[in-house]
Design goal:
This protein is mainly α and 187 residues long. α6 packs antiparallel against α7. The chain has eight helices and two strands, in the order ααααββαααα. The chain is globular and about 35 Å long.
Length: 187
């Protein structure tokens, strides 16, 4: 992520983390406010909890999917790291995609088979991986989607205007979800 797009993605990521108690992605605890005085301490805690440590805890009130991640927060993190817009349609598409995969593979809600991460193990006979931590699972899925075979999905996410366009791109790609993301969005 370079330039203005990178800065905007980081701003969106920070704003999402300070959305308030009980809101998916928020990191404020009971009795905390969004006051400027609390900002630095809250930011430091957010970066420690969800940043480079590799340890992931669900946000307060968050619901984990079978892969052990909050699907909305994981989708937002995935989009942010890709430099894609954090639109409601993109987040909707990411949630439906994770639901379509329905995997219980650790930290791997899109069920990638991407190798090359320390501690990764096979979840199933197809080669879908369990990843050792949240950051590795996110990085593995990003590496997979940016390998040159999924430009249509990336283009739909880049537009950020239609979850169904993303679903159509997934269905037309070699990713294993096929038509299921469309069915979930129509459901």
């Amino acid at each position: 992520m370079d330039g203005i797009a990178g800065i905007q993605a980081r701003i969106d990521q920070i704003v999402g983390r300070f959305s308030g108690p009980g809101v998916a992605g928020g990191v404020l605890g009971a009795g905390e406010t969004n006051d400027v005085a609390d900002f630095a301490a809250t930011l430091a805690r957010a970066e420690t909890a969800q940043g480079g440590t590799g340890d992931y805890e669900a946000p307060a009130g968050g619901t984990l999917n079978k892969a052990g991640v909050d699907p909305v927060q994981w989708g937002k993190d995935f989009l942010s790291k890709l430099g894609m817009p954090l639109t409601s349609e993109n987040v909707r598409a990411m949630s439906a995609w994770q639901q379509a995969e329905g995997t219980g593979a650790d930290f791997n809600p899109l069920a990638t088979i991407q190798g090359g991460f320390a501690g990764a193990t096979n979840f199933n006979s197809v080669g879908v991986k369990n990843y050792a931590n949240y950051d590795d699972g996110l990085a593995a899925n990003i590496k997979a989607i940016t390998n040159g075979r999924y430009e249509n999905i990336l283009a739909a996410l880049r537009r950020g205007t239609s979850a169904m366009d993303v679903a159509d791109a997934i269905a037309a790609s070699p990713w294993g979800s096929g038509e299921l993301v469309r069915r979930i969005l129509r459901g």
